[in-house]
Amino acid sequence: MANSSTLSCTVVRVTRHDTVLIRVHCPPIQSQINMHMVLEGVKVQRKAKSEIVDWVDVHADSDRVNFLTWEWFRDSYGRVLGDLTDPQTGDSLTQWLLSRRVAKPWPDHYLAILRDMVAAEGPEEC
Fold first, then answer.
1. How far apart are CA 15 and CA 2, in angstroms?
2. How far is it, in rounded angstroms, from Cα 16 to Cα 122?
3. pTM above 0.85?
């Protein structure tokens, strides 16, 4: 991810096969925020939920993993697009799911989100 930012986070819960609830420390307000994250650039199968839980159990260091995002882009449900990585090894959750064949690359992910945004605008009134 070009121009990405990395933050340490805690995985609170895997809410769906493609959605993870994470807690990130926010220094400007000296607090923590919860946000839903969807994996960027992949379509995830329904059976991937247990694979995500297993990956987090193995790779979390003191319950912390790294949250990687690019430009804080959000999908039509308001979920931030990103990835989770192991703080020690740099192993990526997305790469793990692809190697386990429970996810497929989705190179048009951003294009699909932009289409949704334009469709939500509705027709222009004259």
1. 27
2. 29
3. no
